[in-house]
């Protein structure tokens, strides 16, 4: 059974409260439950984590080496400026899928650039909770 680590970055713990017009009314717990259900259907073992701290995200990436087969990451705002997270993704040599709830390319200019995209196998954005589900399907096929 393939093991998948799903990492959620800063402010994603505020889903359901924060900018509902952009991110919807579902909470991160709602998304985690759906990810668990779909993971079981796809025969994936999935761990779902969230942190508002860059160093903690990097520590989780480092610890994933040799444990997980795929990483799915919604790095939140760190997507646009964290060279440290980019370097951690590259260093662990685990196929990593970048995801976002919103379409980062149709929002503010500063969100158009992803520091992590070049070290990920792909990017899924703009599909809300389905971005996670689509990434799980992609993980099965990696």
Automatic annotation (TrEMBL):
Lineage: Bacteria, Bacillati, Bacillota, Clostridia, Eubacteriales
EC annotation from Swiss-Prot or TrEMBL: 4.2.1.10
Described function: Catalyzes a trans-dehydration via an enolate intermediate.
Family according to the record: Belongs to the type-II 3-dehydroquinase family.
Assembly mode: Homododecamer.
Binding site for substrate: 74, 80, 87, 101-102, 111
Residues forming coiled coils: none
GO BP field: amino acid biosynthetic process; aromatic amino acid family biosynthetic process; chorismate biosynthetic process; quinate catabolic process
Residue positions of the active site: 23 (proton acceptor), 100 (proton donor)
One Pfam family linked to the record: DHquinase_II
Enzyme class at the top of the EC tree: lyase
PANTHER family tied to this protein: CATABOLIC 3-DEHYDROQUINASE
Keywords: Amino-acid biosynthesis, Aromatic amino acid biosynthesis, Lyase
NCBIfam families the record matches: aroQ (TIGR01088), PRK05395.1-2 (NF003805), PRK05395.1-3 (NF003806), PRK05395.1-4 (NF003807)
Residues the UniProt record annotates as site (Transition state stabilizer): 18
Gene: aroQ
Catalytic activity: 3-dehydroquinate = 3-dehydroshikimate + H2O
Biological pathway: Metabolic intermediate biosynthesis; chorismate biosynthesis; chorismate from D-erythrose 4-phosphate and phosphoenolpyruvate: step 3/7
Protein known as: 3-dehydroquinate dehydratase
InterPro entries per the UniProt record, alphabetical: DHquinase_II, DHquinase_II_CS, DHquinase_II_sf
GO MF, any single term: 3-dehydroquinate dehydratase activity
